[in-house]
Specification:
single chain, 263 residues, Alpha-Beta Plaits, eight-stranded mixed sheet, four-stranded antiparallel sheet, 8 helices, binds ligand L263DTV3
């Protein structure tokens, strides 16, 4: 069903394809890394994630090896994701593509993420969550999420509520992610941001690699695979990726192994 929604007509895989992923030449690659469920384990709440103590050092090494083309690409707001990745000064894409951190550190938001509308949507979702104590409302500069991890029976009401908001607020689309529903500006996506970045000087002509875990990562995994890049799915579930790793610690181990290999 999700594959129809995103227009994917290839062969989605649910089998482990390989554990031992080829070690790419990082000096000719652009490495896109998702955060939650990929570099860090999922937690009961967004602010409950535990970052491995050596993650910052690993990202620094990858940044060097890719000659500045290691990109964190997250659904989180950049201001939020960055607090868990202190010491990483490389490129960042946040809000599933609605924000971009420029080289001078400033954060650019997508013009489709109209501030007044985002504010209104956030206020309404906050009020809804206040009357449904098992829901957690996460406000982002470019959208809003209702998390139902604490009480899965609230998935349907959360969906219905955000669905109604998306129908009355043109320009915002409803997406399903892990134990959450989210409204984000229409037309944005990690795949869209990647395509744009890969056309820029310094990135064009390099091989894209993407590690991602969620259904929201599938269009980007599919795009990377179609470019002859390396698309790696972390964890279970149907995927268009050519490779799969069990969990974030396997992902970090693989990335560490790549930094140790000379080409
Ligand atoms: O693109 P990502 O970096 O993977 O971000 C996706 C979403 O991650 C966060 O939510 C998810 O992780 C939480 C912490 O583990 C978990 O509690 C929640 O159930 C997950 O949906 C983040 O809160 C979202 O904003 C991101 O879009």
């Amino acid at each position: 069903m999700y594959y129809e929604m995103i227009g994917f007509h290839g062969e989605a895989q649910d089998e482990p394809l390989t554990d031992e992923i080829e070690c790419p030449d990082l000096s000719k690659a652009t490495l896109f890394l998702d955060l939650d469920g990929t570099l860090v384990d999922l937690a009961p709440t967004p602010d409950g994630i535990q970052v491995a103590p050596d993650l910052g050092e690993l990202l620094g090494l990858l940044y060097e090896r890719t000659e500045g083309r290691t990109v964190i690409i997250s659904g989180r707001a950049i201001e939020d994701a960055a607090q868990y990745l202190q010491g990483f000064g490389g490129p960042m894409i946040g809000g599933h593509g609605a924000q971009e951190r420029l080289v001078d550190g400033t954060i650019k938001r997508h013009e489709l993420a109209d501030e007044t509308t985002v504010q209104r949507l956030g206020d309404m979702a906050d009020s809804f969550a206040a009357t449904h104590p098992g829901l957690l409302c996460e406000r982002k500069p470019t959208g809003v999420v209702l998390h139902f991890r604490k009480d899965e029976s609230l998935a349907a009401p959360a969906y219905a509520f955000l669905r109604a908001l998306s129908e009355t607020h043109r320009g915002f689309d409803l997406h399903h992610s892990k134990m959450a529903y989210e409204l984000r500006p229409a037309g944005i996506g990690k795949d869209v941001s990647m395509r744009k970045m890969m056309q820029q000087d310094g990135f064009a002509g390099t091989r894209p690699i993407f590690f991602g875990d969620d259904v929201t990562d599938e269009p980007a995994l599919q795009w990377v695979a179609a470019q002859g890049g390396i698309a790696v799915k972390i964890g279970e579930g149907e995927t268009a990726a050519q490779a799969r790793l069990e969990d974030p610690s396997s992902a970090r181990r693989t990335l560490r192994r790549w930094t140790q290999k000379e080409h």
